[in-house]
Each structure stands twice: as C-alpha cells, then as structure tokens.
Amino acid sequence: MLIAQITDMHVMPDGQLMGQVVPTNAMLEAAVARINALIPTVDVILATGDLTEGGSAEAYTALHRILGAATAPVFLIPGNHDKAEAMRAAFPAHDYLGTGGFMHYAVEDWPLRLIGLDTSKPQHPGGEMDAARLTWLKAQLDAKPNVPTMIFMHHPPFRTGIWWMDAIGLSGADALEELVHGYPNIEAVVCGHIHRPITRRWGGTIATVAPSTAHQMMLDLEGAQFLQSTKEPPAFALHHWTPETGLVTHTVYVDDYGLYDPPDHHDEKMMARARAFFDKSRGELGV
Q1: What distance in Å separates the CA atoms of residue 270 and residue 276, rounded to the nearest whole number?
Q2: Distance between CA 81 and CA 97 in Å, rounded?
Q3: For 2-259, CATH number?
C-alpha cells in the first residue's frame, strides 16, 4: 500500500498569495501533479490539516478544485487554520467528515487501517487531545487491536525543539502517548503543523511530521529567527506499507532538480556488469 501525505497547504482564494508572497495554490497543484505521476501509483492521499490559510469559503473552493485533479482518493482532516463548517460545505461528497463536532473517522478500505484524528482546538492555534477524543480513539483501537493501523492528525504529539511551534503544540499529548503505547498494531502516527520533516520514537511506535507542500519553517533550535519561513523545497511524505516490511517513509520533493550524468553511465558493458551484480545481490537478500 502506498500513501501520499500532503500537509500545511495553506490554500488561498484563487488569485491570492499567502502573506502576499507565497504561491501556495500553484505549489499544491504541482504537488498533486507529482503524486499523480508516481510509479507505482498511490492508493490514497492523506491531507493532514492547514488545508487553507484562513478557512474562507473561497479558499475551500480553490482547494476543492485543486484536489479534484488527484487520481487517488483524498482524506481530509482539519488543522488550526481550518474552519469546520466551511470545510464540510465545500466537500459534501466526503461524508466521513460528519455533520457536527470533531472530524474523527476510520478508513477500513485497505489492509492498513487509517484513523483520522481532529486535534483542532477552538479559537487557538495549538491542538488538544481531551478526554472525549481519547475515549473515541480507544474505542476505535479496541475494536480492531490486531489490524495494522496508521493514525493521522495535524498537531504532532511531541516537542520538536522549535520553541514557537512547540508553544502551539498538542495539549494532552502525554495521555495520548500512554494510550497509543498499549497497541503494538499501530505502525505510525503521522502529522503536519511544523512544516519540516521530523521523526521521533514515541508511544512504542514512530511519530513523523511531513514537510509542507508550500513553505518550510526555519530549522532554528535557539529561537533567534522567530516565525521565519524558508524557500526550502516543497515536499510531501510517501508512506510505503507491506505486511513484510511494515511502514517505510520517504520524503519526496515536488520539483524536478535534474540528474547528474556521469560518463560511466554511458558505458554499456560497465552498466551491464553493475546490473548483474545488483541482480545477484538482490536474489541473495530476497529483495
């Protein structure tokens, strides 16, 4: 199973730039095109919050248009920049979003079970896992404790060392970690929010943060460059799961940077010998 995770798209109403400088809509269009072109094809796309910048109806209209070009099914969860009712109104066919309250749901259509958690905290940029949400998640996990499962959510449940992002992190993270630790079938918890690729061992599993399809946040562990974003390449996470390997995660850059082309690669005899060696080694390792 192949899962593309896009996050922190910050889509604007068509014709507008985020902060008057970042072309987030065009960047997401390029990411969707890159995902569509992947071989083998992606089974599902997870969009893990901050789908739009301001949560306006016009922004969700633009998001609906852009995601409509995806050739794989897309599952949405909100982030702190999103507005639940406008989001539901723009995606009426996504009935898993429900009609009120938080947008939690489980997707049972693939061998890897997908559980979406709404970590949004009303009127606050941080996230929250309160008692009601923990109870809902426990019930979902108890229902299928032996099925391989991925949890996807917006706010990461751990501190990253980027203090201003940690200041708007996830309250209730300790209780969530304790809960997750009791279910060895959880392959990973995948998140967004930080606009950087980050990995941590957490809760007896792996917690990862995917980079943004738009701008990335400055990697600043001292805090001198408060709220600075960078022109590091737009990217998304690609999660590859099989029963044999479990979950393996790659970072995929949206842009095409070209190839180095050493002269040796045009030597047919050398390349044939190299391929024979790698084929033999593949057989020895059972790859």
Answers
A1: 10
A2: 17
A3: 3.60.21.10
Question: What is the spatial distance between Cα 77 and Cα 155, in angstroms, rounded to a whole number?
Answer: 11
pLDDT given at position 54: 92
Domain ranges of the chain: 2-259
With contact defined as beta carbons under 8 Å apart, do 233 and 204 qualify? no
Cα angle, residue 51 at apex, residues 124 and 238 outer, rounded to 5°: 120
Beta-bridge partners for 22: 18
- Amino acid 285: pLDDT: 86
| Alpha carbon distances (Å) from 184 to 76, 145, 146 | 25, 8, 8
With contact defined as beta carbons under 8 Å apart, do 187 and 148 qualify?
A: yes
The CA distance from 222 to 167, in Å, is: 14
Element (H, E) at 85: helix 84-90
User: Residue 197: which of 189, 208, 213 has the closest Cα?
Assistant: 208
Contacting residues for 82 by C-beta, under 8 A, at least 6 apart: 49, 50, 51, 52, 55, 120
Give every residue of the chain whose pLDDT is below 50, as ranges. Answer: none
CA distance 44 to 241: 12
Over its C-alpha atoms, the chain yields an Rg (Å, rounded) of 20
pLDDT of residue 65: 98
Residues linked to residue 149 through DSSP beta bridges, in sequence order: 113, 186
What residue ranges in the chain does DSSP mark as E strands?
A: 2-6, 44-48, 74-77, 105-107, 113-116, 120-121, 124-128, 149-152, 170-171, 186-191, 198-202, 205-209, 216-217, 229-230, 235-242, 246-253
